[in-house]
Structures are given as C-alpha cells and as structure tokens.
Amino acid sequence: MPHSVAVLVGSLRKESFNRKVAKVLIALAPPSLSMKIVEIGDLPLYSEDVEANPPQAWVSFREQINAVSAVLFVTPEYNRSVPGGLKNAIDVGSRPYGKGALVGKTAAVISGSVGAIGGFGANHHLRQSLVFLNMPAMQQPEAYLGGLGDCFNAAGELTNEKTRALLTTYVNAFAAWVEQHARK
After folding, report:
1. Separation of alpha carbons 177 and 139, rounded Å
2. Are 38 and 64 in contact (CB under 8 A)?
3. Each residue of 24-64: pLDDT tens digit?
C-alpha cells in the first residue's frame, strides 16, 4: 500500500510555476507514494475565536491532512518568507493546540521562483515552523529551483531536463524519507 502524501502548494495562482513543479513531482513519484494536491486557497484566515465552531473548510482540510502519511510543501518565496496562504494553512492545520493534523507528520520542502535564489528564504522560514510542529523534514537533497520561468513551455510542460533529473532525485529521496519516518 503506498504512503499517501498531501502536497501543499504555497502559490494560490492557478498557473503558478510551483503548482507546475508539484504536478511534475506527482507524475514522477515512485509507486510507494500516492501524492495529491490539497488546496489551501479557500481556507478562512485562522482565528482562535472561531475554533469552537470551525468553518467547514478548516474541518475538511484537517481531515485531508489527518488521512495522509506525509506532507510535501512546494512553495515560492514572498518577501523573503512563506506566502500568506501557506502560512495560514499551517496555522489551520496545526490547531487546535495539541490536536493539530500537521503535528508529527513526515515532511519535505521544495521551493522555487523565477529568480536565481529559488525561494531560499521561504524554504528556511518554513522549516522553522516544521521544527515547532515536530514534523521530521527531509534534509537532503535540498531543492531551491531558480529560473523556473525558463523551465516550462507554453503548455505548462517541464522542458528543462536538468530540472527533471533534480526533481526525480528529489521525489525518490522523499519516498525513502517517508518510508523511514512516516507513522505506520
């Protein structure tokens, strides 16, 4: 039985490069992983004031995260940090305190941008949250994908073979990480 993986894409834009990367990773995943994008764009902003009667979108998101073995974060960098929508998803998924769906899940982070740095700041800020949530995050290989604007054709297909090779190595390493660390 393959390990189920929630893929959280930090960009909310329908045609974002990080969403395209997520789709490539899903296609390249070995049979030991069953990966699916879990949408975060419709999550109301987290507020503890409504935790006693949480919005249905929170409930559904938490159920989807509870059902998986691992979480793969694929994110751009906004202002040298994590995009607001992704941070909100982390806040929603980590609550209520002591019962958060994300807590303890096996994880990995891959970041990308059209710039040269490849989302380095977002990648490392996100890892700080994962430490707090006790999510064992894959350390190697690191993946900061720069120049993503030149990696896809007009149809959204990955055309850069070096990037494809890196993503193949990455998703295979992630599969091994999940096998080693996911709750049985």
Report:
1. 9
2. yes
3. 999 999 999 999 999 999 999 999 999 999 999 999 999 99
What Cα–Cα distance (Å) separates residue 180 from each residue in 13, 20, 114? 33, 27, 33
Which CATH fold topology does 3-181 show? Rossmann fold (3.40.50)
Q: Is 112 helix (H, G, I), strand (E, B) or coil?
A: strand
The closest alpha carbon to 12, from 57, 36, 55, 42, belongs to: 42
- Cβ atoms of 69 and 182 closer than 8 Å: yes
Report the distance separating Cα 144 and Cα 23, nearest Å.
Answer: 17
- How far, CA to CA in Å, does 66 sit from each of 4, 105, 163? 10, 9, 31
**Residues 65-124: tens digit of each pLDDT:** 999 999 999 999 999 999 999 999 999 999 998 899 999 999 999 999 988 888 899 999
User: How distant, in Å, are the alpha carbons of 10, 47, 96, 98, 150 from that of 52?
Assistant: 27, 10, 9, 15, 47
Q: Report how far residue 127's alpha carbon sits from residue 4's, in angstroms, rounded to the nearest whole number.
A: 21
Task: Kindly report, residue by residue over 120-176, the tens digit of the pLDDT.
Answer: 999 999 999 999 999 999 999 999 999 999 999 999 999 999 999 999 999 999 999
Domain borders along the chain are 3-181
Task: Give every CB contact of residue 61 below 8 A, 6+ residues apart in sequence.
Answer: 38, 40, 43, 89, 92, 93, 101
